[in-house]
Amino acid sequence: MATPNYNYEKRQRELAKKKKKEEKLKEREERKTASDGELAQADQKPQGNNPPIL
User: Fold this and answer.
1) Residue 35: what pLDDT?
2) Side-chain-facing half-sphere of 12: CA atoms under 13 Å
3) 32 dihedral zone (left: phi>0; alpha: psi -120 to 50; beta)
4) How far is the C-alpha of 10 from the C-alpha of 19, rounded, in Å?
5) What is the CA radius of gyration of the chain?
6) Distance between CA 35 and CA 25 in Å, rounded?
7) Alpha carbon 32 to chain centroid distance?
């Protein structure tokens, strides 16, 4: 019977952790930019509910 390659298994776990961490960071950045974009759009909207004067 072959012996287990612990170094390979450890490397695979490290790569999986790194990938998961990068995905979380990417999601956080997307949420941050999305919330910043919403704030910028809210600033551009006119205050009040008055219809435009024609």
Assistant:
1) 82
2) 5
3) alpha
4) 14
5) 25
6) 15
7) 8
Give 11-21 pLDDT, tens digit per residue. Answer: 999 999 999 99
**Contacts of the segment 3-9: beta carbons below 8 A, 24+ positions apart:** none
**CA distance readout (Å), 17 to 11, 14, 35:** 10, 5, 27
Average pLDDT by stretches of 10, the chain with 54 residues: 93 98 97 77 62 68
Residue 47 DSSP one-character state: S
Residue 1 is classified by DSSP as: -
- Write the single-letter amino acid at 34: A
Quickly list H helices, the chain.
6-44
